[in-house]
Amino acid sequence: MKKLILDLDTGIDDCLALAYALGSPEVEIIGITGTFGNVQRDTGVQNSLALLDLFGRQDIPVFAGASHALQRSTFDVQEASALIHGRNGLGNVQIPKSNRQPEHAPACDFLIESAKEHGENLTLVATGPMTNLAQALEKDPEFHNGCQITIMGGALTVPGNCNPVQEANISQDPEAADILFRSGTAITMVGLDVTLQTLLTYKETAAWRQIGTPAANYVAEITDSYIQAYGTIAPYLGGCGLHDPLAVAIAIDPSLASFFTTNLKVDLSEPFRGRTIGDEQRLNNPHKTVKVALTVDAERFLKEFMHRVSTLLRSRTF
């Protein structure tokens, strides 16, 4: 069975990605690493611990990682993130707090040691800024050791969601993402090209409410706030984008998508800072390191998403 690590900035779609992974029998989650992004790092770490308790998986350790971008000393949550995810990252829904604490080891050390131990049997999915991965690469350039890395981030064929070229996760730490893309690490990029083709509506959250368990009711309420926020910022979509869950799904089952293979970089200077684009210095390099998801079987993904998450929520009877 594949081992899985989720690197999260735990907001609402991270919550749904965690539920999807926990409902997937193909993988075993061996740890969660936390970073900043949708919320402050410590808030995200506490959200991860609380959600694991809610889902009955107190056995999964959580590791705190970077609290700010590589070239910054602080981090402030953007107003757009607070609008979409709520001030607490979970749509301002108050779920029971966890009594657990994060592990003492830093996230980058856990990533390095896990990659050494599991090698090709490890899948790492990052759904926030790439800072923890960049820190691991800087500490040990060979840390990935053949493991599979999938990121939710970037936009290659569509506009960004921060400005015309910038996707939110990349925008939080462009230098970290650029280090990752240029490192030679094999990466699958699941960006806005596909994630905005996968939408959840009130119809699906109503189905969770019918399950009636506390976990189902909490997740439905959290997700409803996400759908409501999307109705404000992008009413033309007709639902909320399943960004992070799709990244987990494609990491588990790549047949859900089709890919364009290339070598990428991140622009680090204005006016295009944060843009994910082909690296002109490696265009003719026959060794391509990034697979960019360009199409997705949205219908099959949504069906699997609802089945896996609903099965998990149904199992939590208390």
UniProtKB/TrEMBL annotation:
It comes from the Bacteria. GO terms for cellular component: cytosol. InterPro entries: Inosine/uridine_hydrolase_dom, IUNH, Ribo_hydro-like. GO terms for biological process: purine nucleoside catabolic process. GO terms for molecular function: purine nucleosidase activity. Gene3D superfamilies: Ribonucleoside hydrolase-like. Keywords: Glycosidase, Hydrolase. CDD domains: nuc_hydro_CaPnhB. Residues 4-302 form the Inosine/uridine-preferring nucleoside hydrolase domain. This is Inosine/uridine-preferring nucleoside hydrolase domain-containing protein. It comes from Actinotignum schaalii FB123-CNA-2.
